[in-house]
Specification:
Strand order of the largest sheet of chain A: 1-2-3
Chains: A mainly alpha, B alpha/beta, C alpha/beta, D mainly alpha
Strand order of the largest sheet of chain B: 3-4-5
Strand content of chain A: under 5%
Radius of gyration of chain A: 29 Å
Structural class of chain A: mainly alpha
CATH class of chain B: Alpha Beta
Largest sheet of chain A: 3 strands, antiparallel
Shape of chain B: globular
Oligomer: heterotetramer
Number of strands of chain B: 5
Shape of chain A: extended
CATH topology of chain B: Rossmann fold
Structural class of chain B: alpha/beta
Chain lengths: 261, 189, 174, 305
């Protein structure tokens, strides 16, 4: 991942699709991921399951972290010279991507279209269905209206856009002209921060017991067992194979109670 | 000295309206780039801390040229530092100002005969205000900043327009003195 | 302090016994300087290094233009014994060549490059001794030589406008 | 979901927005004066923050491509949307819809927008700054959410104005500050983390990474991000007031509480140097999480407070 970088300039549509995907995966409002996360949190908080909730909160923010890393390492940052001639993904791949991300946005803004089907299923098998009123979903202790959230986000975005447009136009500057304490750096790879992105986290548990070696040893043991079994049992002469098939058949018949009745 | 590129003395008319209001804001909140190029920079901490308090004038240090409004050339400028100052100056967002401390920016000061120190900064970068004193005292520094504020308010701090209009003239001088502004050698690949 | 003096004394005796020292000098109380001939400078340096002077503090060069010679001064430093030794030698100024000492003090690589840039002394055996180190885009003769005219260079390279008004007159009289 | 309900909501939201900007910017100007007096100097005028913001907006900055601008607009849009939902005294844009989780995750839209445009500017310092901001966010978010879990579980409603209303029933005794003192302490520590004040200022460390994500901003983008910072501070502090200090019946109480909390946080930040990012994470994963789970346990299982 660290060799890539700055692909947004060559593959903008893929970038937008990935952005919508990670917004939904991290469970952030305008996208569908938020609705499911909100419902889970509602029920979890309603029942007061503290430890599960702590893990869920850590998981939600953690997912935001690890989905952001590919975004910044692969799409943003400096475009290295060898990727200058990359082209966008072929049209046939882009169409399904766009359809799916539009679906995510649609179900993020108006989730009740699909939630009606789910609550129908729930009532049909006897569970208490979801309380859906118009565009609102009411959980155990709160009401969520994703459409209003989307409208307000759009309203905020429009204000920001107006603020952006009425002020002086900014000067286009190419990517390598960045602040490097006014030193002259010519190779984009030097200016791309992608490898060991969350170093402080790794340092956090670096002297914790290393479980990889333990699992590695376990895997080796299983492989040896496999070789031992195949060496001792499966000698590839036809007679031994026929012998094993016959014993297995007899065993099945005995187990089936057919042979001894 | 490149003779053939004429220097445009009179900058084109500054448009009214928005500029009047924004000049008030630009004058009262100047951000200084934390780039101390020479020996006069030791006077800046005194100007920032409690006795002289630059923040009263709305001034404060900023980390990057993109955010800064004024770049202070404090003291002598060696050839290598001039390359970096030019690079930082070009990275600043407009309108930007340049304040030169001490005699070294006027005629090379006590380093006038050195092979590494440039003599006159005015040939390479447009200077808005000079502050006298071989290491100007904090009072002089504050007085200089006060004058800079007056100049911005009265629309006379147009160094950045001069740089934009006579870019060819400045660039020619820079190339003449520095060979090339952006270095590409063993240490900068 | 007297332990210092006899300490220095027997050091000088020891070095003089091994190599033919052209002259000994005491620039400061804790410094002693030996002048060697070009040929046995390397052996002296390696001996002193084994005797405890493990750090090469600096290599500098002096331009005796009237005797038409360069003088290379190696200042070496000992962590246990607080005596600083200057090992000096003189080389011809015209084709200034000298063998590198990176085999004895590896750190000398950059000092030799620096001396080459500012004085023009060639160091055989140091692969990048002729590379440029500090001065960027330098296009003239090495600047610290005595025959380099820095005012002329400065006036030619860094132009200065002549001021029309004569500031020496008082402000009042025109 | 009729139209005029939304329009009135938008109008009140816009009112809250303007109030938030004017109040928070002037308060941060006053705080700069207070901090100045702390250093035995006068400090700037109280409206200096306004002048800084409008000066930044009036300058002609640079842009590194469309993601650089789009990210700034997305950040400011997301944070503005969050501010519009915020209940200030009686003005609530959408009555029972102001769910606590909206604030946390609509806030995350702003953070994502800024992170995206900062890294999109192509500067490695911005990437490091964003990485530090995100790791710090994981640090202070978990204890804060656990404490809010306790509050929501006990009050049965996750709407912020509802929580504030419950606390106002019996005067000062029913404030969460009194009922859950440990929770309020943890909330305040996480508030310091959210504000990015001095002990937890690693992601905009001016000396190490040249003001982190803000490295490449100048001109109007910088102005918009400064406005976003003011709004973010407003959200965090009014969130703290509504959750722990029982909201406010009239505007004067709100302003007094807001001022006390903000100036207290600023003065605490004056007394601290800047933590390293490893220390920030270790700090947040040691005491705040333990206290938060302890407090939540007391509330959920022990029924105390």
């Amino acid at each position: 991942m660290s060799e890539l970088g700055g692909l947004i300039h060559r593959m903008p549509i893929t970038y937008l699709v990935y952005l919508i995907a990670i917004i939904s995966m991290a469970g952030i409002p305008p996208m569908a991921g938020f609705i499911s996360k909100w419902m889970i949190f509602q029920s979890m908080v309603g029942k007061g399951m503290i430890f599960v909730a702590t893990a869920a909160f850590f998981g939600s923010i953690g997912s935001f972290l690890y989905v952001f890393r590919p975004l910044s390492a692969v799409f943003l940052g400096q475009l290295s010279t060898k990727h200058k001639k990359l082209k966008e993904a072929p049209v046939l791949m882009i169409i399904p991507m766009i359809i799916l991300s539009l679906a995510t946005v649609l179900y993020g803004v108006v989730p009740n279209m699909v939630l009606k089907i789910f609550s129908g299923i729930e009532t049909s098998i006897g569970m208490k269905g979801l309380q859906l009123a118009g565009t609102q979903i009411s959980g155990t202790n709160g009401i969520l209206d994703p459409t209003i959230i989307a409208i307000m986000f759009g309203f905020g975005f429009v204000i920001a856009l107006v603020l952006f447009l009425i002020h002086p136009k900014s000067r286009k500057v190419e990517l390598m002209d960045t602040y490097t304490a006014s030193e002259f750096i010519w190779t984009p790879e030097l200016l791309h921060y992608a490898s060991n992105f969350y170093a402080p986290f790794e340092r956090l548990y670096e002297n914790a017991p290393d479980t990889e070696k333990w699992y590695g040893a376990l895997i080796k043991k299983i492989e040896e067992l496999g070789q031992f079994v195949s060496y001792s049992l499966f000698s590839y002469k036809p007679s031994t194979i026929i012998f094993y098939i016959m014993t297995m058949l007899i065993g099945l018949l005995v187990w089936g109670g057919v042979l001894w009745i | 000295m490149s003779k053939e590129i004429k220097k445009v003395e009179k900058p084109e008319k500054i448009k009214k309206g928005w500029d009047g209001i924004s000049n008030y804001f630009r004058a009262n909140s100047i951000w200084m780039l934390m780039y101390c190029t020479g020996c006069c920079a030791i006077e800046l901490p005194q100007a920032m801390t409690s006795r002289y308090d630059m923040e009263r004038l709305g001034m404060g240090p900023m980390a990057t040229p993109r955010q800064a409004d004024v770049i202070l050339v404090t003291g002598y400028l060696s050839v290598k530092t001039l390359r970096r100052v030019i690079y930082a100056y070009e990275q600043m967002s407009e309108p930007k100002y340049l304040v030169a401390f001490g005699p070294c920016a006027i005629n090379g000061g006590i380093y006038y005969d050195s092979h590494a120190v440039i003599k006159q900064l005015d040939q390479y970068l447009p200077i808005d205000i000079y502050i006298a004193g071989c290491m100007p005292k904090p009072e002089a520094v504050m007085n200089g900043f006060k004058d800079l504020i007056e100049m911005i308010k009265s629309k006379k701090a147009t160094g950045w327009r001069k740089y934009r209009d006579n870019n060819a003239w400045y660039k020619a001088n820079q190339i003449h003195a520095l060979g090339e502004v952006r270095i590409k050698d063993e240490f900068h690949e | 302090m007297n332990s210092m003096n006899n300490n220095v004394a027997d050091l000088v005796k020891d070095v003089e016994a091994r190599f033919n020292v052209l002259s000994v000098d005491y620039p400061k109380d804790d410094q002693v300087s030996f002048d060697f001939d070009n040929r046995d400078l390397h052996s002296a340096l390696s001996y002193l290094r084994s005797a405890g002077w493990i750090q090469l503090s600096i290599l500098s060069c002096i331009d005796w233009i009237d005797e038409n010679e360069f003088q290379l001064v190696y200042i070496i430093f000992n962590w246990e014994n607080p005596i600083r030794i200057q090992v000096r030698t003189r080389i011809d100024r015209k084709e200034a060549k000298f063998r590198t000492i990176t085999s004895i003090y590896p750190g000398a690589k950059y000092y030799e490059r620096d001396v080459h840039e500012f004085f023009g002394v060639e160091f055989e055996g140091n692969p990048d001794s002729n590379k440029q180190l500090f001065l960027e885009n330098w296009d003239d003769m090495p600047p610290l030589r005595k025959d380099f005219d820095s005012i002329a260079y400065s006036d030619s390279k860094y132009p200065k406008r002549e001021y029309k008004t004569d500031f020496s007159k008082k402000a009042g009289d025109k | 979901m009729d139209i005029n309900y939304i329009l009135t909501g938008m109008l009140t939201g816009f009112g809250v927005l303007v109030f938030a900007f004017v109040w928070q910017t002037s308060l941060s100007g006053i705080t700069r004066k207070v901090v100045g007096r702390f250093h035995k100097r006068y400090g700037p005028k109280w409206y200096q923050e306004f002048r800084d913001i409008f000066k930044a907006m009036s300058k002609r900055g640079i842009t590194h491509g469309w993601v650089y601008d789009f990210g700034v607009m997305m950040a400011l849009g997301g944070i503005m949307a969050t501010v519009m939902f915020m209940p200030v005294v009686t003005f609530v844009a959408f009555g029972q819809l102001d769910n606590f989780f909206i604030y946390v995750y609509l806030f995350a839209v702003g953070m994502l927008g800024m992170a995206m445009s900062a890294v999109g500017s192509g500067n490695p310092l911005a990437g490091i700054g964003v990485m530090r901001a995100l790791t710090q966010m994981v640090g202070y978010e978990v204890p804060f959410m656990v404490i809010v879990l306790a509050i929501i579980f006990r009050d049965g409603t996750s709407s912020l104005s509802g929580i504030a209303a419950i606390q106002q029933t019996g005067g000062i005794l029913t404030w969460n500050l009194v009922k859950m003192p440990i929770g309020t302490i943890v909330g305040f520590i996480c508030l310091l983390g959210m504000l990015g004040k001095k002990p937890f200022e690693t992601f905009i460390a001016p000396a190490e990474i040249a003001s982190g994500p803000m490295v490449e901003y100048g001109g109007k983008q910088l102005g918009m991000l400064m406005i976003m910072h003011q709004f973010a501070t407003f959200i965090e502090i009014s969130l703290f007031i509504n959750l722990f200090l029982g909201g406010a019946t009239n505007i004067v109480f709100f302003i007094i509480k807001y001022m006390i909390i903000y100036i207290l946080a600023s003065l605490i930040s004056q007394a601290f140097g800047r933590f390293k990012i490893d220390q920030v994470i270790k700090y947040f994963y040691r005491w705040p999480i333990v206290l938060a789970i302890l407090q939540a346990g007391l509330v959920v299982w022990g029924r105390i407070g």
